[in-house]
């Protein structure tokens, strides 16, 4: 494997650009790269919670063909304990078991699968973000898409919003009992015009199937020789719960 490019991995492009490659675990393209983000993110979450009451939560909403139905998780009330109650970090017990079964099944075949992580931000301050180049959703997308294995990003209604008309999609305003301007729905995902509006920010991130699998695949070496590759060692059948 040290001389062969792993299909859909960063080996080839790193070598093409820099003339070097990481053959031990993937280097900077490995999920291990996120350890610094995990540590700093844990501190940032505590700071946000302390100073503004802001909560950031993420859970697995899809593993391969096992998809949580819309409305099955209440973003106003879902808790970290519910999310962490199982190894796939899905707050819905029934679907968590289905996801675990799907991962176990693909593991026995030496293959891998992907999925979707939903992230929500409650009590986000209003006014985060700026028009045009520094829109909040653009900043979030850049941060999220820099994670290994990410292949898609959407917030609010996302791509499903394309099936709606304007009258169906618009979030109408109202004044609540505290005199605060709110929206009756949240298809905007808490962001309008690139600026947070005080509603729950929600986004979804798609992760591809793990590139390193225990199945024979056709590839080439740096010397352009065509060979068959069978990866060995430990690898995740699904990176999504991580």
Automatic annotation (TrEMBL):
InterPro entries tied to this protein: Chorismate_synth, Chorismate_synth_AroC_sf, Chorismate_synthase_CS
UniProt-listed PROSITE patterns: CHORISMATE_SYNTHASE_2
Annotated keywords: Amino-acid biosynthesis, Aromatic amino acid biosynthesis, Lyase
Keyword S-adenosyl-L-methionine attributed: no
GO cellular component, one term: cytosol
Pathway per the UniProt entry: Metabolic intermediate biosynthesis; chorismate biosynthesis; chorismate from D-erythrose 4-phosphate and phosphoenolpyruvate: step 7/7
Enzyme Commission number(s): 4.2.3.5
Pfam families the UniProt entry points to: Chorismate_synt (PF01264)
Signal peptide boundaries: none
Family the entry assigns: Belongs to the chorismate synthase family.
NCBIfam families for the chain: aroC
Name of the protein in its database record: chorismate synthase
């Amino acid at each position: 494997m040290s001389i062969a490019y792993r299909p859909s991995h960063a080996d080839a492009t790193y070598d093409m650009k820099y003339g070097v490659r990481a053959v031990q675990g993937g280097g900077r393209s490995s999920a291990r790269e996120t350890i610094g983000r995990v540590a700093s993110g844990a501190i940032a979450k505590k700071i946000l919670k302390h100073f503004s009451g802001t909560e950031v939560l993420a859970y697995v909403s899809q593993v391969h063909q096992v998809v949580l139905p819309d409305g099955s998780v209440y973003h106003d009330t879902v808790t970290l304990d519910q999310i962490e109650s199982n190894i796939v970090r899905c707050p819905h017990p029934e679907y968590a078991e289905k996801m675990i079964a799907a991962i176990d099944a693909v593991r026995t075949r030496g293959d891998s699968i992907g999925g979707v992580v939903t992230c929500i931000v409650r009590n986000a301050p209003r006014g985060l973000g700026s028009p045009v180049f520094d829109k909040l959703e653009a900043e979030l997308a850049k941060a999220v898409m820099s994670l290994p294995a990410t292949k898609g990003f959407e917030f609010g209604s996302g791509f499903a919003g394309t099936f709606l008309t304007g009258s169906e999609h618009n979030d109408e305003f109202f004044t609540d009992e505290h005199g605060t301007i709110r929206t009756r729905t949240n298809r905007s995902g808490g962001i309008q015009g690139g600026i947070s509006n005080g509603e729950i920010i929600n986004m979804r991130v798609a992760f591809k199937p793990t590139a390193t699998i225990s199945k024979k695949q056709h590839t080439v070496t740096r010397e352009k020789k065509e060979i068959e590759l069978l990866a060995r060692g430990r690898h995740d059948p699904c990176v999504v719960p991580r």
